[in-house]
Amino acid sequence: MSNDPYVLAREAAAALKAAAGLDTFDVALVMGSGWVPAADAIGQVVAEVPFTDLPGFAAPAVAGHGGRIRAVRTDAGRHALIFLGRSHLYEGRGVDAVVHGVRTAAAAGVRTVVLTNAAGGLRPETQQVGDPVLISDHINLTGANPITGTTFLDLTEVYSKRLRDLVREIDPSLAEGVYVAFRGPTYETPAEIRMLRTLGGDLIGMSTVLEAIAAREAGLDVLGVSLVTNPAAGLAGDPLDHEEVLQVGRATAARMGVLLAKAVDRL
């Protein structure tokens, strides 16, 4: 097996296409913590492959991440890859492992990727737990980048305004926000949350931004959607708990599934 991450992505893409009996895919979705139940609404399952059966993938280490890749056909006849889980930087496998799913999707022909996540809300005065928020921009505080060398990539518009506008046609109530990514796995301190509010952040999490950068490097259009699962540290007085994240995901799965199903056929 090659150690080149781009070769591994092509090998994984070839295996996925063979499993689904398809030459290409239209769109990919990466399902974050608590989002996995929403995947059932997106389309008819054509094939489902465990991460561990594909080159370059490892089983997710986080509860709420399914560890499978599902190929589906939507009602409109589009073919989607759904990544039921992801790798995170704090798992210690490196940046290439974090973005391997996005690179595999690109190698499989995908031109649009939807990145979902569970996020702490930095603006409880305007955000409610259970609200989906469209990501308009990000602040990368992970200390990492999936691109090395002298590839200078313009990140003026990482998250496509055109795609956000399309999704707001489905649900005009959706707000936008700036997503801040930390490495994790510790949650942020109240002092860090005060800093992030001052910097202009609206959402806080431990994923998405490295995948978004890798997607833009591959020429993909990116739609990012955060599910607000809790107020960030120090804003509500309660300790943070990953089980709370999963509970909110289960409670909102039906709404998120309908939103994603409608969006996929328009992207």
UniProtKB/TrEMBL annotation:
<feature type="domain" description="Nucleoside phosphorylase">
    <location>
        <begin position="27"/>
        <end position="264"/>
    </location>
</feature>
<comment type="subunit">
    <text>Homotrimer.</text>
</comment>
<dbReference type="InterPro" id="IPR011269">
    <property type="entry name" value="PUNP"/>
</dbReference>
<dbReference type="Pfam" id="PF01048">
    <property type="entry name" value="PNP_UDP_1"/>
</dbReference>
<dbReference type="InterPro" id="IPR035994">
    <property type="entry name" value="Nucleoside_phosphorylase_sf"/>
</dbReference>
<dbReference type="InterPro" id="IPR011268">
    <property type="entry name" value="Purine_phosphorylase"/>
</dbReference>
<protein>
    <recommendedName>
        <fullName>Purine nucleoside phosphorylase</fullName>
        <ecNumber>2.4.2.1</ecNumber>
    </recommendedName>
</protein>
<comment type="similarity">
    <text>Belongs to the PNP/MTAP phosphorylase family.</text>
</comment>
<comment type="function">
    <text>The purine nucleoside phosphorylases catalyze the phosphorolytic breakdown of the N-glycosidic bond in the beta-(deoxy)ribonucleoside molecules, with the formation of the corresponding free purine bases and pentose-1-phosphate. Cleaves guanosine, inosine, 2'-deoxyguanosine and 2'-deoxyinosine.</text>
</comment>
<keyword id="KW-0328">Glycosyltransferase</keyword>
<keyword id="KW-0808">Transferase</keyword>
<comment type="pathway">
    <text>Purine metabolism; purine nucleoside salvage.</text>
</comment>
<dbReference type="InterPro" id="IPR018099">
    <property type="entry name" value="Purine_phosphorylase-2_CS"/>
</dbReference>
<dbReference type="InterPro" id="IPR000845">
    <property type="entry name" value="Nucleoside_phosphorylase_d"/>
</dbReference>
<dbReference type="GO" id="GO:0004731">
    <property type="term" value="F:purine-nucleoside phosphorylase activity"/>
</dbReference>
